[in-house]
């Protein structure tokens, strides 16, 4: 597997520097300095990396040997836009622990723009109705679909 960060890749001339020196020189704001987290489920590999002030995600398809998604958040078909945080993968599903406040913001701000299927809309609204900003986190389960 090879991920090319293009012009955002740390130039070879800086490879000898340790992370402290990279931070001192401010290079971490201009270049990708490494992968922070990596998860896989057989077909897909999820990589999280830091670029500038943001965390970004890459979803790499091992069978196609290519990047299929890339960005700060991932658009999940028929539900709402999410930013992956703490998650686990099992039997083709992704399970994410979403703080109640974040979940309420997703439902309030993204649902009107990204219309989920009626069965998901109803479930999301019912869950949001009994939550407050300080409620316990919500466990969200979803499955990524691949363009064939």
Describe the model:
This protein is α+β, with helices and mostly antiparallel strands and 148 residues long. Helix content is 20%, strand content 32%. It is built from three helices and nine strands. The protein has helices spanning 19-24, 100-110, 118-129, and strands at 35-40, 44-51, 54-61, 66-71, 74-75, 81-82, 86-90, 93-98, 138-142. The strands form three sheets. It has a four-stranded antiparallel β-sheet with strand order 1-2-3-4, with no helix packed on it. The protein has a three-stranded antiparallel β-sheet with strand order 7-8-9. A two-stranded antiparallel ribbon has the order 5-6. The longest helix is centred in the C-terminal third of the chain and has 12 residues, at 118-129. It is globular and about 55 Å long.
Q: Quick recap of the structure?
A:
The protein has helices spanning 19-24, 100-110, 118-129, and strands spanning 35-40, 44-51, 54-61, 66-71, 74-75, 81-82, 86-90, 93-98, 138-142. With 148 residues, the chain is α+β, with helices and mostly antiparallel strands.
SSE order and pairing:
Layout: H1 19-24, E1 35-40, E2 44-51, E3 54-61, E4 66-71, E5 74-75, E6 81-82, E7 86-90, E8 93-98, H2 100-110, H3 118-129, E9 138-142
Antiparallel strand pairs: 1-2, 2-3, 3-4, 5-6, 7-8, 8-9
């Amino acid at each position: 597997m090879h991920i090319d960060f293009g012009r955002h890749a740390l130039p070879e001339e800086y490879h000898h520097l340790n992370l402290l020196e990279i931070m001192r020189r401010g290079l971490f704001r201009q270049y990708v300095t490494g992968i922070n987290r990596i998860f896989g489920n057989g077909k897909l590999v999820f990589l999280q990396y830091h670029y500038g002030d943001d965390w970004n995600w890459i979803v790499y398809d091992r069978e196609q040997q290519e990047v299929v998604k890339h960005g700060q958040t991932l658009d999940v078909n028929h539900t709402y836009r999410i930013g992956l945080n703490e998650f686990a993968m099992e039997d083709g599903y992704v399970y994410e622990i979403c703080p109640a406040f974040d979940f309420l913001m997703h439902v309030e701000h993204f649902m009107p723009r990204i219309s989920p299927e009626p069965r998901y809309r109803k479930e999301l609204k019912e869950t949001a109705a009994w939550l407050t900003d300080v409620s316990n986190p919500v466990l969200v389960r979803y499955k990524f679909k691949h363009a064939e």
